[in-house]
Structures are given as C-alpha cells and as structure tokens.
Write a structure and sequence with these properties.
The chain has 335 residues and is α+β, with helices and mostly antiparallel strands. It has two domains: 219 residues, Sandwich (Jelly Rolls), CATH 2.60.120; 106 residues, Homeodomain-like (Arc Repressor Mutant, subunit A, Orthogonal Bundle), CATH 1.10.10.60. 39% of the residues lie in helices and 20% in strands. The protein contains eleven helices and 13 strands. A hairpin with a 5-residue loop joins strand 1 and strand 2. Helix 5 packs across helix 7. The radius of gyration is 22 Å and the shape is globular. The two termini are 25 Å apart.
Length: 335
Amino acid sequence: MNLTIPKYHDPAGNLTYEADSCIPLRAAWNKRELELTTLARGTYPGKMLAKDELTGVKSVGYWNIKKLQNWGLDWHTNEGIEICLLESGTLDFLIKDEKIKLQTNDITITRPWILHKIGTPNVNLSKLHWLIIDVKIRHPHQNWEWPNWIVLNQNDLDELTRYLRQNEQPVWKANAGFRNCFVQIGNIIKQSDQKRYDSKLKILINQLLILLFEIFKNENIVLDQSLTESKRSVEFFLTTLETNLQKDWTVVKMAGYCLLGVTRFTHYCKEISNCSPMEYLNRLRLRKAAKLLIENHKTPVIDVAFMCGFSSNQYFNYAFKRHFNKTPNQFRKNH
C-alpha cells in the first residue's frame, strides 16, 4: 500500500495521522464527470463550511456517478468516523485483506485508523452518501468527544460510542429510515443556495445517529474491549511506520505519536515485535535499504541511506554490515 496522501501534524509537530484528500474525486468533479454535492472543510472537496457551521463535520453529502470513471480512492484513512450509504449501483470496497462488493443500501463504517480503499482500480456507476464527523480521536484507545450539538441523551450516546469503539464490522445493511435520512441530507445540501442548512442538517445528523444506534441494538453484536486498548494503537503505529521511515524518529516521538508514555509504549513494542522501538525502526530501514540497493542499482549508496532515514552514511554502512554481513556496495554487487 503506497500512501501518497497529505500528512497532518499535531501542535507539537508529531505526525499523528494521514487523511484522504480525495484528489482523484476532486479532479473528476472539476471536469464535470460526476455530480458532487457536499459540504466540507479542510482538504475535502465541496462547498466549504464556515467555521461555526456543523462544527466537527469534515465532509457530508454524496456523489452521483452516471458514466464510466478512470479513478478510484486509493488506500487512505479519514479525519473522523466515516459513515457511508450506497443508495444505488455497486462499489468495490477494500479493507485490510478483504474485498467487499457493496450493494444497494449497504452501510460502511470506518474509524480514523482503518485503511480502506474504493475501486479496483476504478469506481463503478453509483450514488454514494457519506458523513465524516470528527470525534477528536486518531487512535483506538482515545476517548471519543462528540460535537456539542449531538443531542442524544448521555446513556444512548455512551452506548452508541461503545458499539462504534468495540466492534469494527465494516459493512451493515440500512433500513428504510436510515436510507431516507441520508437522502434528505443530500437534498437539503443540493437545494440550499443560501446558508440556511445548518439547523436542518444538525437535526438530520442526530436522527441518522439514532437510527444507526437502533440498527446496532437490533443486531447481535459481539463487543470486544481489546479493540480500545493502548496496545492496539501501538500495533497500528508499527504497521504504518514503514511509510514514514524518513522522519527523525526517537522513542519519545514514537510514544508521542501514540499518545502514550515512553515506558508503556516500549513495553507494548517489545511485546508485539520482540525488540525495542529503535531496533524495530532500524530493521525496517535496513530492509527498505536492501530493497532499494537491488531495485535502484544506479542510486548512490549515500542517497539510499538518506531515503531510508539514516542520518549519516557512516552509520548506515556500519548498521548494514552488522545486519547483512556485507557492506551496502558488496550487497548490491552480489545481487
């Protein structure tokens, strides 16, 4: 999975998450190859929301594709919890190692740490609705913070949050009420030339969450508390670390990324990988370096070192020989 999407940082400068910018969707929209009816903020395409409108909502609306497309949404995550409804058509939805053919009235739910993809490689003719709402989390173990205009009573909101945190079933089936609610949201966005949609959409989004809560309650959901543990946040970090090897990582920065203390982070890292955080990082860097030395045989060794996050050629040569029993040049020559 090659992640080429924008990287977002927290105030301390640590990489905290990578979110989808929908670049191919935006390009198709600009060429008028599809209908895109959305309200958005940040890098998401659509009509930009004002600062005080629908606070916490990153994107809401739909696309309507009626002719063949030459793009798909590659592996990505989102800035909040994403709830989608396929109103018509079909779509290939990929999550982890699973490929799912979405059908009419299918709901997908993804959390900010879940990589997913739409299209293999291109999207199909379809009408897809979505809501991305930021609940102030980027890692599984964090506590959710809903926007203050979500009006479910505290017990219902806590239970809904528990359903969303302690199960990660990606696809559900919508009932008529849930479908109609999403359609109403899309109609209001499409018909509102003036900014009079804020209150109406807040009411409908609350209704949508209530309907989702009812869908969960009617299912025999097996909740798994381990999905919310700190160890799982470290697991996700380690699986994505390979795409960020050039960053000047330290154990403190790694722990900060996961919003954990150094001792706890190091404990989980050793438990998962059987090595310390820096040992794990260096093994990833050396593995990537070995691959680049073979595949990019004209790239100078010093450039390979920097591409893999090593700060000096001298240390790179030392670490590489210690691991592979050959210098980088010898390794390249033998392969």
